[in-house]
Structure formats: C-alpha cells, structure tokens
Design a protein that fits this description.
heterodimer; A: 248 residues; mainly alpha; 10 helices; B: 319 residues; alpha/beta; Rossmann fold; Alpha-Beta Plaits; 2 domains; six-stranded mixed beta sheet; 31% helix
C-alpha cells in the first residue's frame, strides 16, 4: 500500500502540474500533429520509385507514434529532473519515504497517460489525413507502455547529466532527431547507407517501430520486438532510477 | 539523549573545504540555530545531517543511527531555496507531501498551523513570498516529524511572516520536536534558539546559549555619542575633545569623525558621562546606549570585528 500511495501522490502532483502548464500541453500535442500534417501530405503525393515516402501510408504509422513516444518522455522527464534539481526538490524528496524508483514510476505513469491520449488522437488524425490502412491492435498498448518507459529512463539519465533544462532539451533533441530517422520509422532500411545498418539494430526505437509495424501494418505478432523493447525498458528504467540525483 | 550528533565532520569538494572537523550535538527537544556568513558551510552541514551528502570524514548520527538508516517519517526537511511545484495550490502541495508518508497530519490542519488556511485554494505561484515559505514549512510539518531541519526558513519573508514562522518553531519545540535551523538573522537566532553555533570557513567557532555567547564574545556595553562641530576653535573635533575628557574618567573610547564610541558603559554611568561632556562644553546631538548582541558575536567570530571593536583609535584605559 505504501508504494502505491506514494506513486499515486507523486503522479497526481505531476499530472496536475503538467495540465496546468498550458503551453506545454499545447506543444505536446501540436508537435506530432504538425508532423503528421506535413508527412501525411508528402505521403499523399504518391511519390514513385524508391525514394522517401514511397511506401503505403500505413507503413509510416510507427513513425508518427514514435514522435510522441520518443520526444515527449525524453524531454519531459529530463527537464523535470533538471527543474527538480534547480528547486532543491530532490533534496526534500530524499528525506521522505519516496524512493527514486517510485519517483520515476510516477512520472512514467504520467507520461504513459499523456502519450496514450496523444496516440489515440494521432491514430484518429492519421486515418483522417493520410488515408492510411492499418489495423488497431491491443499489442499497441504494451508497445506504447514499454516504449514510454524506455525513454523516460533515458530522459532521467539525461536530466542527471545535463546541468539545466536548456541543456536537457538540447541533449534530448540531439539524441532523438537522428534516432527518429534511423530507427525504421520514416526512412526504410534500404535507403540507408550499408554502414549505418548495424547502428539501426542498436537503436531502442527500432524495436518499437518494428513492433508497431508488425501489429498494425503486417498483421503479425510483435512478440519478439516487444520482448526486446521490454528488456530495454526495464534496463533503462533501472539506469534512470539510479541516475536520479538524491544526494550531491 | 542527543537527537543529532556530528563528530569531526569534514566535507571537501576537490580543493574546497566546506566543513573542517565540525563536532556538535543537539539534544532532543532543543532548538539549535546555526549562523555564519554565506559559504561558511551551513547548508553542507544540514545536508550531512540529513544524509543528502556524504561527509568526506567524520561521523553523523540522527537518533543514534546513520541518517540513511533513520525512518524518514521522523524527519522534516525544508531545504534552502526550496521551490515546490508552482502550479499546485497550497492545499494540493501539502496533500501531495502528506501522500508520501504512511501516516500524516490533516493538510488543512497543517495549513492552519502555518497560517495559510485562507489561501489554501491559491496556487503556490500566486502566493506572497511569506505565504510560499510558510506553505513549504507546512509541507515539512505534514508528517509530524521528530526533528526538523530548516535551512534559512525565513529568508525573503516580511517581518510579520518571519514572526509567524518563528512562533511555529517555538510551538514545535514546545511540543517536543528537535529543530536545527540555519539563519542569517541574529535576532531570529536569539529569539528562537536554545543554543547557537557560529560556523565560519567550515569551522564551528563557538557554540552556546545566546546569552553565554554574548557574554563571552559580544564585547562591552557601549555608548555612542554623535557630537556637533569643534568647541574651542582648535583643529580638534568635538569627538576628540570628548575622548580626552572621558579618558580622564578611565573609559575606553574610539573616535570616528563626529562619532565617539565609549566602551564598558553601564546604564548608571550614563549620567556621569553626560555631565562630564557638558562640563567640557562638548555639544552632542544624539546619545545611543547599546548592549552587545548576537550580531556583535557574529562580527567578532567572523572577522567583522573591525566595525565595532576598540582598535588603534582607543583613548583612555579599560574601565
């Protein structure tokens, strides 16, 4: 009961803090929406050949979801860690029963909630704007949960390393942007240079993309990719929880 | 039993020595105020005592255990420059911190205790500075702790707000809680603390009750005479003339432009001094008699003594 109560208290405070920051709420949803509008428009031009955006619209669903699964937790948790540190909140929390893992679990839950809502909106928008053909699958739920958990953990580690909120944003963009385009989201592997392909397999987002594509586009079981994603998420969560600063 | 014990605590950050062999103990139910200049090591000592920093050397115990082993529900910590989530209301903030403990006080009761009940529905970011700090104090009290660490709890608060916080500290001590606070406000330390420790350059220079510290380190009672212009047409100022008069009465005095500071003056002596000055034709505009206080102790112990103590300009002998 104690752990659940503490996580609930921390998550409740974090959720209220988020929804009352109207600018943050707006851009959390506006960023992926504008990306869908732009990329969706590109896909609808039906380009031919073997270049960018030549796959059917449904192929790019993992890319759209990856935008929120990757960017939102990475920057949100990272900047939250920086904000907590700047306000000496961790110094206070370190002297309460709330553990670092509980803190990260609470903020992961909040991000799962935010990204869950955003994903539903994005899927609806994808249908409306891109005419994508894809199947809804319950596999999406664990894929989203583990994907968000994974990047919350990395965000917490970034928050520990970067010395300010600005630093976190810069670092998360530096990591997320290349990863977004290398992890089989919008760019198919055959368009990438051969020497980059081993790197693709090392990117955690790749397994999210492959899993979502298997579940929604190919109609296959994403179990293997989900298992890898889950293992990476657990490892990332452990590293992130350890990285949360409670002492100097 | 001692609630807090620090034994030869050292803390180094590379070449910087933040704490240099600090030893002290605080009894259960005692209010201990730690004062010292910025950078003296006060916050580092608080962090060592709360377990949020590990000493480089030495030993720290809280209720006989290492800080890491102490049941967190017994601790209440208000860090320096603490900034909680600003978009929560005062009630939500206190409720949030209450939710981190298995047992806690009623948040509304806590808000009443710290005098913020009327602003319970106001977001933290919209509270006044004093209300914000008192709400933070509420968040520190919500688990009904046995020992409180308050790092500059009244910084940035107006006098009325300061007094409210100080009254709450006294109430907590009356209820049996141990309070360890840091402050730059000597009047606050004198008002709330059973004992005061002076920290300078990482070293604990003195510890004692306010009265004992003032007695041992505060210097003498003094009379400050604001003199008018010279009296006899000579180059000597009125203050110089007065100093000469008082040296004959065996008072130690120091002149500074038109100000004369006479040391070792008891209240009963003031009439004699005034009589002597008037007999010598020394015109003065103001007389101020002061007793030494913790501020004098602070200046004495932190190399600020040049501002007050008798030095080269002393005239006359000891009284």
């Amino acid at each position: 009961m104690g752990t659940a109560t503490r996580i609930n208290a921390e998550a409740g405070a974090a959720w209220r803090s988020f929804v009352r920051r109207r600018t943050a709420v707006f851009f959390t949803f506006f960023f992926p929406v504008i990306l869908i509008v732009i990329f969706g428009a590109l896909v609808r031009t039906d380009p031919t050949g073997t270049g960018l955006f030549t796959e059917p619209a449904g192929y790019y669903v993992p890319g759209y979801l990856a935008v929120v699964v990757l960017f939102t937790p990475l920057s949100r948790v990272g900047s939250t860690v920086a904000r907590h540190r700047e306000g000496n909140r961790f110094e206070k929390l370190a002297t309460t029963p709330l553990s670092r893992a509980e803190w990260l679990a609470a903020h992961t839950l909040v991000n799962v909630g935010i990204i869950g809502v955003a994903s539903v909106l994005l899927l609806a928008l994808i249908l409306l704007i891109t005419d994508a053909q894809f199947g809804f699958s319950l596999w999406l739920v664990p894929l989203l949960v583990f994907g968000v958990t994974l990047f919350c953990g990395i965000g917490a580690a970034l928050g520990r390393i970067a010395d300010s909120q600005d630093g976190v944003i810069a670092a998360s963009n530096s990591i997320a942007l290349p990863m977004l385009f290398l992890a089989e989201t919008f760019v198919t592997p055959d368009l990438l240079p051969e020497y980059v392909l081993p790197l693709v397999d090392l990117l955690p987002l790749t397994y999210f993309s492959r899993g979502v594509r298997a579940a929604t586009y190919y109609g296959r079981s994403p179990a293997v990719d989900l298992a890898i994603l889950a293992a990476l998420a657990i490892a990332s969560f452990a590293v992130g929880a350890y990285a949360i600063p409670q002492t100097d | 039993m001692d609630a807090l014990v620090a034994e030869n605590v050292e803390k180094r950050y590379d070449e910087t020595v933040a704490l240099d062999g600090v030893s002290l103990s605080v009894a259960e139910g005692e209010v201990f105020a730690l004062v010292g200049p910025n950078g003296a090591g006060k916050t580092t000592l608080v962090r060592a005592l709360t377990g949020t920093t590990a000493p480089t050397a030495g030993n720290v115990t809280v209720f006989g255990e290492s800080p890491a082993a102490v049941d967190e529900s017994r601790l209440g910590v208000l860090p320096q420059s603490f900034a909680p989530p600003a978009r929560l209301t005062a009630r939500e903030l206190v409720t949030y911190y209450a939710g981190l403990y298995d047992r806690s006080r009623d948040p509304d009761d806590v808000l009443s205790t710290v005098g913020v009940a009327a602003a319970a529905e106001t977001r933290y970011e919209n509270l006044s500075g004093g209300q914000q700090r008192r709400t933070c104090l509420g968040a520190t009290l919500v688990n009904d702790p046995d020992v409180l660490f308050l790092d500059e709890p009244t910084t940035g608060i107006d006098p009325a707000g300061r007094r409210t916080v100080q009254e709450r500290i006294n109430d907590l001590a009356d209820g049996g809680a141990t309070v360890f606070l840091t402050t730059h406000d000597m009047a606050e330390a004198e008002r709330v603390a059973d004992r005061v420790g002076f920290l300078a350059d990482g070293r604990l220079e003195a510890v004692g009750s306010p009265s004992a510290l003032v007695r041992d380190h505060g210097g003498e009672r003094r009379l400050v005479v604001e003199t008018d212009a010279g009296t006899d047409g000579s180059d000597a100022t009125a203050a110089d003339t007065a100093a000469g008069v008082l040296s004959e009465l065996d008072y130690a005095a120091r002149t500074d432009d038109d100000e004369l500071v006479v040391f070792g003056v008891e209240p009963d002596d003031i009439g004699d001094i005034v009589g002597a000055l008037e007999s010598a034709g020394v015109a003065y505009s103001e007389l101020t008699w002061t007793e030494p206080d913790l501020e004098d102790v602070y200046l004495e112990l932190t190399d600020g003594r040049d501002a007050r103590a008798p030095a080269a300009a002393v005239a006359g002998g000891e009284h």
